[in-house]
Amino acid sequence: MDVFHCIENRRSVRSFKDIPIPEEDLTKILKAGILAPSAGNIQPWEFIVTTKKDLKAKLAEAALGQYWMVKAGVIITVCANEEESATYYGARGRNLYCIQDTAAAIENILLAATALGYGSCWVGAFDEMEVRRTLNIPKDVRPVAIIPIGIPAEIPEARSRKDLRRVVYFETYGESKW
């Protein structure tokens, strides 16, 4: 699938068929995550793959009761190893670069899932401490996103986007060619 087609067709899917994802597809999706760019090529991301229903239910509870995600074939929790980034970049690595790096990995995961015909959703609303407890995440590793992935039961309509003229400036902030 063409990358622009994936970008245009990616949706936040919140309704799944209760069907597992084949391991070969899951591996392709995870590999797409690690192919993302990162500051200094540190690659501070870590992925926790959850397929057990009881753990998916605990993650859904931690995600402020978003129980729709339990039916997803898999949930990938993307984490940032803050100290790994801080080793090279200090506070900026801990507070910014590791988050930017994991965000790039998350987007790659979402696009790879779309390319393979799966639905996915970037879930950022969750109780971080509860996710840490549920998945036994150490204190220097921060959960950044929960990504349910599976066979969509329905595909939502595209949502509107801001016009480029409202968000693009040329040369300096506020200057527009349009």
Characterization of this structure:
The protein is of the alpha+beta class and 178 residues long. The protein has one domain (22-153): NADH Oxidase. 42% of the residues lie in helices and 15% in strands. It contains six helices and four strands, in the order ααβαβαβαβα. A four-stranded antiparallel beta sheet has the order 1-2-4-3. The radius of gyration is 17 Å and the shape is globular. It starts with a helix and ends in an 11-residue tail after the last helix. 33% of the residues are buried.
Give short descriptive properties of this protein.
about 180 residues, NADH Oxidase, globular, four-stranded antiparallel beta sheet, alpha+beta
Residue-averaged pLDDT, rounded? 96
Give the CA-based shape.
Answer: globular
Count every helix, treating DSSP H or I runs of 4 or more residues as helices.
6
Q: How is the largest sheet built, in terms of strand order?
A: 1-2-4-3
Count of DSSP strands: 4
Q: What is the chain-wise order of helices and strands?
A: HHEHEHEHEH
Tell me the fraction of residues in β-strands, as a range. 5-15%
The CATH C-level name is Alpha Beta
* Major sheet characteristics: 4 strands, antiparallel
Secondary structure category: alpha+beta
What percent of residues adopt helix (DSSP H or I)? 40-55%
Give the radius of gyration: 17 Å
CATH superfamily, by name, is NADH Oxidase
What is the total number of structural domains? 1
- Determine the N-to-C terminus distance: 32 Å
Low-confidence stretches: none
